[in-house]
TrEMBL record:
It comes from Planobispora longispora. This is ABC transporter substrate-binding protein. CDD domains: PBP2_TMBP_like (cd13585). InterPro entries: Bact_solute-bd_prot1, SBP. It holds the Pfam family SBP_bac_1.
Length: 401
């Protein structure tokens, strides 16, 4: 198995082996470069951790096993119990959302949602965000400006963090969908960042960066994540999913001052997606698929899954485990209510099998930086993004066929 070190404890591995005599686990720490080398050599791990969103590239390349026959026979994992985020692991040969299941989600969050520090809102005399109504993105930027505290050239408190280093295509695609726009053409071979909806999303990111209210790739956080800065009360709002609350169970100073809010909106349509949906898949050339499936069942529905749900580190990939999410502390109860209400606005993000998420993010960030520095207009930057990504899509299509 190639998983993260936090995904399965030694005790859980021992428990699985005791319950499944004849199966021994060899643990490999998650390493994308090593995984690619193993896949290329035809000797992959038997089961691999990975996100549902973005999985279409693997599926189009024939790297993953269709798990539907296993699901049909399983007494543990049932299709009707899978949260909709699992649809991002589905593949019909040309697009996600239908067809066979090529992975199972362990947990997920609707990643456009917000967490905020009420103490910093009180200090700035800014009203709290609604628990049920989405904040328009333009209003969110105005709020961020009020919450930002600077001293000379130094920012003491960031008004808003976007986890810029983690994703750009996900948030921008969400903004485009919220405006009723389209990201790709019908056969997913071309992207259009020249549309009014895409230019508006891109412009908002430029405005955010030029306002200096939060970290960007031109002004990054040292650790590339909002968590430590938010925990130090040097960030008032961070755009992170439900899972983010798991950081604060033991932090009494913080957990009395944090709340969760719905995903912001750009346009008229509420869309609150997941940018990842971490799960597991079985490579097509795995040598021990039946054993890997047994581990899949244990990991997704057994003691590890129950423990994850109770910890609050994400919403379980199974509907039947949702009742185990923690509600003991006031902030947990508030976040649970927000997250449950937000589920009705969940929607899969569009993705093309001919390009990776990382490649999209890199192309967007390169042109964002140029627009932020006023080397290009927003229109010219969006045109450049369109040209660069479409070139990569064409290359991907030629490779995959």
């Amino acid at each position: 198995m190639m998983f993260g070190i936090q995904d399965l404890t030694k005790e859980q591995i021992a428990d699985f082996e005791a319950k499944n005599p004849g199966i021994k686990i060899q643990f490999l720490e998650n390493d994308p470069a090593r995984l690619n080398a193993m896949l290329a050599s035809g000797n992959p791990p038997d089961i691999v951790i990975g996100p549902a969103v973005g999985s279409s590239n693997n599926n189009a390349r024939g790297l993953a096993t269709d798990l539907t026959p296993y699901l049909d026979k399983s007494q543990v994992l049932k299709k009707e119990d899978l949260q909709p985020i699992n649809d991002s692991f589905r593949w019909d040969g040309s697009k996600i959302g239908q067809g066979g299941y090529y992975g199972i989600v362990k947990d997920f969050s609707q990643d456009a949602t917000l967490w905020y520090n009420t103490a910093l809102f009180d200090k700035a005399k800014v009203p709290y965000l609604s628990d049920t109504e989405p904040t328009p993105y333009d209003e969110l930027l105005a709020i961020a400006k009020k919450l930002t505290i600077k001293d000379g050239g130094k920012t003491l408190v960031f008004g808003l963090g976007l986890e810029w280093a983690w994703s750009l295509i996900g948030p921008m695609a969400t903004m485009i969908l919220q405006q009723g726009g389209q990201v790709y053409n019908a056969d997913l071979t071309e992207i259009d960042f020249n549309s009014p909806a895409a230019r508006r999303a891109f412009q908002w990111y430029v405005d955010f960066a030029q306002a200096g209210v939060g970290p960007t790739s031109l002004n990054p956080l040292p650790d590339g994540s909002d968590m430590s800065t938010f925990s130090a009360q040097r960030m008032a709002i961070t755009q992170d999913g439900y899972w983010f609350g798991g950081n604060y169970i033991e932090d009494k100073k913080m957990n009395g001052n944090i709340r969760m809010a719905p995903a912001p909106i750009m346009g008229d349509k509420r869309v609150s997606p997941s940018y990842g949906g971490q799960g597991a898949w079985i490579p097509a050339e795995a040598k021990h698929k039946d054993a890997a499936w047994k581990l899949m069942e244990y990991f997704m529905a057994g003691p590890p899954a129950e423990g994850r749900a109770k910890s609050g580190w994400g919403i379980p990939g199974l509907k039947s485990l949702a009742s185990k999410l923690p509600q003991d502390l006031p902030y947990q109860k508030q976040a649970y209510a927000v997250a449950q209400n937000e589920l009705q606005y969940a929607a899969p993000l569009p993705e093309s099998p001919y390009i990776t998420t990382d490649a999209c993010n890199a192309a967007i960030d390169k042109q964002l930086q140029r627009a932020i520095k006023k080397e290009l207009t927003v229109d010219a930057a969006c045109a450049a993004v369109t040209v660069e990504i479409n070139k990569l899509l064409k290359q991907g299509k030629e490779r995959i066929g």
